[in-house]
Amino acid sequence: MLVQESRINQLNSILQYCSQKRRIFTKGERICINQERGYLLNLNTPNPVIIKVFEYSEILDYKINATLREIKQSNWKPFEEIDINWLTDNYKSK
Fold this sequence. Notes:
With 94 residues, the protein is mainly alpha-helical.
C-alpha cells in the first residue's frame, strides 16, 4: 500500500471512530485532520512521495497515534468504509 493511500485510510478511520464510537477530537482538531486529508485527496492519484508534511501539536499528534492504536487493539470497524476511486478523483462510502 502506498504511503499516501495508507495515511488517508488512517485519517478516515480516526475521523469515523471519533464520529461513531468515541468523541476524542475537538472541532478544531478535526479541521486540522481534514486539512491533511483534503490535501492528500487533492493530489488526485496515489503517490508514494508526499510533498507537504503536516505537523501537529504534540497533544494532537499524541491523540492521533493513541486513537490509531485504540482502533487496532479493539479491531474496530466503521459502519461504512470510505472507498476512494483514484481514477475519477471521487470518494464515497461503500
